[in-house]
Amino acid sequence: MSFDALQEKIRAKKNPTVAGLDPKPEQIPPHILKASYETYGETLQGAAEAVWTFNQGLIDALCDVVPAVKPQAAYYERLGWRGLEVMERTIAYAREKDLFVIADIKRGDIGSTAQAYADAWLGETQVGGAAHAAFGADCVTLNGYMGADSVNPFLKVAGERDKSVFILAKTSNPGSGELQNVAAGEGDTVYGLMADLIEKWGAGTEGKHGYTRAGAVAGATYPEELQKLRARMPHTFLLVPGYGAQGGTAEDVQYAFNKYGHGAIVNASRSIMCAWQKTGRDGTDYQEAARAAAVAMRDDI
Fold it and tell me: In angstroms, rounded to a whole number, what is the distance separating the alpha carbons of residues 270 and 91?
């Protein structure tokens, strides 16, 4: 799915947001953990199966509200191969529910390694005479600070399979300015040069809504930079992290969109996923709480 497909899902649901699926075991309702641990013990498998149950419930509760979900690979990798298997299941289940899936993997290696990652997450792996999709995401996040060598293999596979990527430009974390805001040339910054590269890398792949396959990550926590990036990257779809728990507001994220309200999707993870922790019902209402938080975010934006 290209960004055309994502934009159409956003328009259909009137909601430019993506729900992050980044659960730690301690963020999962106690009744889910208890049932999983009774079956599998307090093991990595027990934690992974609890994540799977939690993710299924969240997807069921959110699939008619949000157009997309974004599982973050680190939270699955910390559970070993069992966690990655749950991430694979989560991606497949979300796609069954007609959600756009952004695999937040932030890969950034070069050459044959980048090609292997691209095959794994967006494409297929050749096994003898057969080809198999390993994870089958619609889109991935990338770190492009090693240059085009780390991005081109993903763009090639994305082009072949009508998929897309988001490349880090100006991220939402407090330390991002240590590198990204460093002066680079006369009156420019490192993140500004990266923005130009992203537009260059995606050139010629514009879809019917005007956006290339090479999107960019631009944090809500830096609204001034976000506004500059929107103006500088007219053909680039933006993924905007930092809303909610990190402090970004609806007023901040408005700068990510073009004059028609298109061209960006805003992420929230903890504020939706952990909404059950604020209701006082010990997680038995986690689906209702997540849905209410997602609706509130949609309406706020």
Answer: 19
Of 55-69, 135-149, 172-186, least confident by mean pLDDT is 172-186
Distance CA 301, CA 296 (A): 9
Q: How far apart are CA 100 and CA 77, in angstroms?
A: 21
- Catalytic annotation on 278? no
Determine the Cα–Cα distance for residues 223 and 101; give it in Å rounded to an integer.
Answer: 25
Asked whether 252 and 220 are in contact (CB, 8 A), the reply is yes
151 Cβ neighbours under 8 A, 6+ residues apart: 114, 142, 144, 165, 167, 201, 214
| Residue whose C-alpha is closest to residue 272's, from 9, 78, 66, 35 | 66
For every residue of 143-182, DSSP letters joined together read --TT-GGGTHHHHHHHHHHT-EEEEEEE-SSGGGHHHHTS
- Cα separation, 88 vs 92, whole angstroms: 6
Q: Which of 106, 156, 208, 278 is labelled catalytic?
A: 106
Instruction: Give the model confidence (pLDDT) of 162-199 as tens digits.
Output: 999 999 999 999 999 999 999 998 889 999 999 999 99
Average pLDDT over the chain reads 96
What's the DSSP call for residue 243?
B
In the Cβ-directed half-sphere of 151, how many Cα atoms lie within 13 Å? 24
Q: What is the DSSP string of 69-106?
A: EEEBHHHHHTTHHHHHHHHHHHHHHHHHTT-EEEEEEE
CA distance 227 to 257: 9
Predicted confidence at residue 66, as pLDDT, reads 98
Count Cα atoms within 13 angstroms, Cβ side, for 145: 13
Look up the pTM and report it: 0.97
- The torsion angles phi and psi of 74, rounded to 5 degrees, stand at -60, -35
Residue carrying structure tokens 């903890």: 270
For 249, counting Cβ atoms within 10 Å of its Cβ (0-12 exposed, 13-18 middle, 19+ buried), the class is middle
pLDDT in tens, 114-129: 999 999 999 999 999 9
